[in-house]
Specification:
about 230 residues, alpha/beta, globular, binds hypoxanthine
């Protein structure tokens, strides 16, 4: 069975997607744009033209398209800011839980169903094992705090979040929740691209460094995803 991956546009043009064919899938929530290879069904979160901002991503269509294609195991690859000094930019984190207090998406518009959210432990373990085999130093636990975006957070917001979570991003909780509702397995690997606003007071955020760190984590991320395709059946 093919592996599903939802990721940023940074994975465009990588070996992972060599020879991929474009596909549009119509779902009851709208259409999803996918890139399909022999082993992989990839959804670029920000769409074909890479211009869909986080608050306008059609998460329901994306997840429902996996369901329609019988893709049951999904890895989310997410970009995050660090809420802890010890979690440095360029780290990889495999979150074990998440916080998402608002804008929670659902496929249950016409019936009353309350799923219990959570990330898939089996897939999390596989991500961790594969990364260790590759000699990558990844952080095996973490709480992901989801914001609606597209703006970044205020320092005051981050000072609240840092007490309860380890990383902050704009997508993963929505995807994990919908996957659960649709009976799909989902786990995430987050690449830390920056310290969140105000975490490092004494150092101004250096954008050039953020871009360099992000490019390096993409290389590690791609290695992990290529290996996951080999081991996940
Ligand atoms: N905040 C929210 N989302 C993010 C960040 C951040 O600092 N970095 C990458 N995605």
């Amino acid at each position: 069975m093919k592996l599903g991956v939802i990721g940023g546009t940074s994975l465009f043009g990588t070996k992972l997607l060599e020879g991929a064919k474009e596909k549009e899938v119509e779902t009851k929530y709208g259409s999803a744009y996918l890139l399909v290879t022999d082993e992989l069904v990839f959804i670029p979160r920000h769409g074909k033209a890479t211009n869909i901002p986080p608050h306008r991503i059609n998460y329901r269509a994306n997840l429902a398209s996996f369901k329609l294609l019988d893709v049951e195991k999904i890895i989310g690859a997410s970009s995050v800011g660090s809420l802890k000094r010890a979690i440095t930019p360029r780290s990889l984190v495999v979150p074990h839980d998440y916080i998402c207090l608002y804008n929670i998406p659902t496929v249950y518009d016409d019936e009353i169903v309350h799923v219990t959210p959570g990330l898939d432990d089996g897939l999390r373990t596989t991500i961790i094992e594969v990364s260790k085999d590759l000699g990558l130093d990844l952080i095996e636990h973490g709480v992901y705090f989801q914001t609606a975006g597209p703006r970044l957070e205020t320092k005051a917001e981050i000072s609240v979040m840092r007490n309860y979570a380890d990383v902050v991003g704009m997508n993963m909780a929505s995807e994990a929740t919908l996957a659960k509702e649709l009976g799909l397995r989902y786990a995430d690997i987050s690449t830390v691209d920056n310290y969140a606003h105000g975490i490092i007071e004494e150092e101004a955020l250096d954008y050039k460094k953020i871009v360099e760190d992000a490019a390096k984590s993409r290389v590690d991320l791609e290695k992990v995803l290529i290996k996951l395709i080999e081991v996940i059946e």
